[in-house]
Amino acid sequence: MKYCQMVKQKWLTIFFMSIFIVVFTCPVFASRNESMKLELDLNSGWEFRQAGMTEWLPAQVPGCVHTDLLNAEKIPNPFAGDNEKDLQWIGKTAWEYRMSFDVKKEWLDHDRIQLEFDGLDTYADVFLNGQSIIRADNMFRKWAKDVKSSLNQGKNQLLIRFRSPIHEVLPIMEKMAYRLPASNDQGEKTSPHTRKAPYHFGWDWGPRYVTCGIWKPVRLEMWNDARIEDVHIKQKVARDRADLNLSVSISSVNSGKMVLIVESPDQEFKTVRKSVQLLKGENTAAVDVSIPNPVLWWPNGMGGQPLYDVRIRLKKDGNDIDSATKRIGIRTLELKQEPDQWGKSFTFVVNGIPIFAKGGNWIPADSFTPRVSDDKYRHLLESFQDANMNMVRVWGGGIYESDIFYDLCDEMGLLVWQDFMFACSMYPGHPRFLLNVRREAEEQVRRLRHHPSIALWCGNNEIETAWHHWGWQDRNPPSVWNDYESIFHELLPEVVQLQDPERTYWPSSPSSNGEADAGSQEIGDVHYWNVWHGAAPFEDYETHFPRFNSEFGFQSFPLIETVRTYASSEDENIESDVMKAHQKHPRGNELIREYMLLKFPEPKDFESFLIVSQILQAEGIRVGAEHLRRIMPQCMGSLYWQLNDCWPVASWSSIDYFGRWKALHYFARHFYANLLISPNEVDDGIDVFVVSDLREPTTGTLRARLMDFSGNVAKDTAHQINVAPRESRVYLHLPKNEWADMSDKKGSFLFFDLVQNGKTVASNRHFFVPVKEMVLPRPEISWVIEESSEGIRITLKSDVLARYVYLSIPGNEGRFSDNFFDLISREERVVVFQSVSSDLKDVKDKLVVQSIVDCFK
Ligand code: BMA
Predict the structure, then answer these.
(1) 369 preceded by cis ω (within 30°)?
(2) Of 578, 769, 753, whose CA–CA distance to 670 is shortest?
(3) pLDDT of residue 841 exceeding 50
(4) Would you name the residues annotated as active-site residues?
């Protein structure tokens, strides 16, 4: 996060917190106008207990039972040691939550009074003053009930009973002749039957914490006459204007005349007033407005992200009754799938420009999502933006993310590939389940469709391929596939067609949409897992030519600071029970070690092993990502698995649970940059590609230098090149007999840079042998630290080549502009350190500079 932004944000947070305290701690915040609706926030004063016990303890709403138990000091930290195994009882237990609130006499005069839960996780019976009012069974839906007739003047009691999702489903499973596959459930495979975040039941990077609770806000809404329920905005973009077609859903208590006003708080378009004749019940009113000369919204790196507020007001007899605001971006977006020489394209096109999608896969940022703060979302998404990404896939085993997530994606130009929440399992197809899914999908599509960042709706993660390739087809009755088709080929596409016809629905990831096998490289997206799951070498990436790669990955360990939050010094060995409890892939540690020893010498100790594991991961994914970019436009997307973690663990992530960047994330910043130099060894030498994602042509001097580790240049060349926009091309070929063959392969390397007006805009290097075969000298690295406007500047210099220079400041959570980089002999390199909590002295006193030779004996 940028330093100044963090400071600004801090003050903004304090400012908004003060407003929050003033406005929201008074239970009712009425609007200026008497006839506007009232809202009573019911998020405070909750208590919880284990069903059947007497003691009530304070609870947090939004929250969940695990964090409530933790706050009440009834359980140890679920993320520490191997506590997970002793805490499984929580998911097999029923829990109760209660609170009381006061209702004033005059509130009861409202036409409608509705109790609204934005989310209940999951099997919940809600009682108001002892009367059952809601029976919830889907974490991803809102639950609302008109409670006017159940409310008392004065004190009212809310009680919620949460039943165990495991015990709820076991009797259903007992009656079934077969078991639905659920490959990641750690324990009884109940998850397919429950509309709850699949990863709560365990995953190959996450613990099994089958939590429950009031995971989203709850409120009482009171209104008269009518209420705006939803607004759908469709846009038609022309050269000099954008025509918006709004469809406003209104529920009305009675029939009558009202006025709808559509306006721009920033005066971006002319206000439109429309008188509407409402009928009692549900109504839809259409209004058209036009934005003249709109500034277009672009993905990160392609242009800006201007956003327009569209405010809708509903008036009766001159008084405002209700209002709603949607923030939109003006752009066209389509997924182009057209026959071409390689099969069929799979290209996102924004404002008419094909986009190479660069990014990764997002999982929930915590096992207990209600505690993910806005700051954490911001930090993670800013980290993706800073690493030159333009797409995030919200993977189907987690949750439909919070509003703030999509708001930030809109602001940062991060396109969202949005899965529906189904992953690696087969699901039931009985009518009640289907209806539940339909409601969920409708609500989620309606909630999210106004976000310019949403690029695609995708049915599920890996189920199509699992059915055909994981043996499921042979082990299950054909009806299980029919149920699959009902959900993913009928219900979900139907919902998207009705609720968001402007966007594409894609049945599964990976898929070829029924035109070929899900793994086809000619059509659709692929998940490539020969590296890692198939134990193939990294170079295998270069033998695959997919149209869009939506998953490929390699694991690493988090850094020692993170490991120390869950392991004690006695556990500092990757084979210890605690380290194994934080490695969910059965062969994970073994695979990391095997791959590592092919490329690196044995690390000298535990901490070095962690560092080298990150370098290994970064190098592997770099090979894959650079290849995918080099083969553009045959391939138009690279989304690696995975961006983040839900707890501290060894995993495929590039940022750990605490938000610390691993080496891979620093590498991503380079391999996803708009200008990439990518050398590729071919039979007769080296092809030097320059890949450009820029919309405009550019020029520069492309240099290649063959150097030894002491910095002696054996050969060099420099060419002025014109870099074509949005193209990958070989700009330089280095014949083998003149370059590679001449060198001492163990002691030399090629260094490339692209220089524009004296400034290096891209660089890369090529080594002929793996680190374990190199004779790397021990470098003397010197540095100068000084304050600058962007942060603290560290200028580094080394006498000889220093590989994977790793900077750290123990106890300081700031971020370096670059890390794990190669420092060329005698060439200066500037790194900027940004943090809120450090001064120059802190950095000067504590900066540690290591390079990879420090990891070996
Ligand atoms: C992918 C994902 C996840 C999984 C990851 C690593 O296929 O879709 O299900 O966590 O692989 O195994």
Answers:
(1) no
(2) 753
(3) yes
(4) 462
Contact of 494 with 440, CB cutoff 8 Å: no
Separation of CA 205 and ligand 1 centre (Å): 9
241: CB partners within 8 A, 6+ apart: 290, 291, 292, 293, 294
Give the model confidence (pLDDT) of 584-635 as tens digits. 999 999 999 999 999 999 999 999 999 999 999 999 999 999 999 999 999 9
For ligand 1, atom 4: residue with the closest CA? 204
Residue 793, token pair as written in the block = 């500047």
Q: How far apart are CA 742 and CA 735, in angstroms?
A: 11
Q: What is the Å distance from ligand 1's center to 588 Cα? A: 13
User: Which pLDDT value is given to residue 606?
Assistant: 98
pLDDT of the residue at 173: 97
Res 28 pLDDT > 90: no
Give the pLDDT of residue 21: 40
| SS3 per-residue string spanning 660-726 | CECHHHHHHHHHCCCEEEEEEEECCEEEEEEEECCCCCEEEEEEEEEEECCCCEEEEEEEEEEECCC
Does 373 have pLDDT greater than 70? Answer: yes
Query: How many whole angstroms separate alpha carbon 580 and alpha carbon 208?
Result: 15
E strands, 293-352, in order? 308-316, 319-328, 333-336, 339-340, 343-344, 347-350
Contact 314, 320 (CB under 8 A): yes
Rounded to an integer, what distance in angstroms lies between the CA atom of residue 455 and that of residue 446? 15
* C-alpha dist (Å) from residue 512 to 230, 459, 507, 521, 850: 34, 13, 9, 9, 46
- Mean pLDDT computed over 853-857: 97
Spatial distance between the Cα atoms of 306 and 466, rounded to a whole number of angstroms: 41
To test the ligand 1 pocket, which listed residue (465, 526, 642) has its Cβ within 8 A of the most ligand atoms? 642
Residue 7 has pLDDT above 90, yes or no: no
| Residues with Cβ within 8 Å of residue 456, at least 6 apart in sequence | 335, 348, 417, 418, 503, 504, 505, 506
**Any idea which residue has 């220093």 for tokens?**
802
Take residue 238 and report the two structure tokens written for it: 């022309």
Residue with tokens 């067609």: 497
CA–CA separation, 777 and 515 (whole Å):
55
